[in-house]
Specification:
This protein has helices at about 10-25, 25-45, and strands at about 5, 50-55, 60-65, 70-75, 80-85. By secondary structure, the chain is α+β, with helices and mostly antiparallel strands. It has a single domain, classed as YaeB-like fold, CATH 3.30.2310.20. A five-stranded mixed β-sheet has the order 1-5-4-3-2. Helix 1 (about 10-25) runs antiparallel to helix 2. It is globular and about 40 Å long.
Amino acid sequence: MKMIVWNDLAMRDYHENIDYLLSKWSDRDAINFITDVDSLIFNLRQGNVEFKECGYLDIKQCVVCKQITLYYRHIESDTIELLRFWNNYQDNKNLKL
């Protein structure tokens, strides 16, 4: 089983996405997002999945939902660092990994 480490940007993005969903959408949408992230992290932790390279420094990406992409990397053979929960409607020029 792999260990999952959240960096500060990933944690901030995650909470900002939840806050946005709660303020502009519904509790159900926020819960669905949280559930999707939990499921994705469970699969990463189990080592069941490996997502595609994003083309930058061995960083991988996966779609959490249509609007959000998770960027992560392996920092050791048994450790995955979550880097960003990026809103796909933002300009990728602003994406800092």
